[in-house]
Amino acid sequence: MNDQVLPDIGFGRIATTLPVQDIERARRFYVETLGFTKTFENGTPVGFMILKNGSAELHLTLQPNHRPASFNVAHMMVRDVDAFHAICKRAGLRIVKGLQDKEYGLRAFVFEDTEGNRIDVGAAL
Known about the structure:
- By secondary structure, the protein is of the alpha/beta class.
- Helix content is 17%, strand content 41%.
- It has one domain (16-124): 2,3-Dihydroxybiphenyl 1,2-Dioxygenase, domain 1 (Roll), CATH 3.10.180.
- The radius of gyration is 16 Å and the shape is globular.
């Protein structure tokens, strides 16, 4: 254990950056399917983008050689996890772990986005 007293740094927002091979395909999914809004983009062609929905914020970064990780790269908390799960199924996304109530107080599932990024989604029971 570190006995050093740390200053109150005052952390603010931390946003997840998702690597994508096709930034336009990823944008369409998050905007058209999940209701995010693009608030920023950079580069010609676009290589970085910020998307927001409520207090959620995602950063997309173009990585042409991206190979998806075999683990969850982000965790999202939502109010209605059943509705989110239904949206993912309608969109034809791969459900990695099915929707279930967890002993730690969440109803959750894991899906892969259009770029293969695994995202854990949960709602409080």
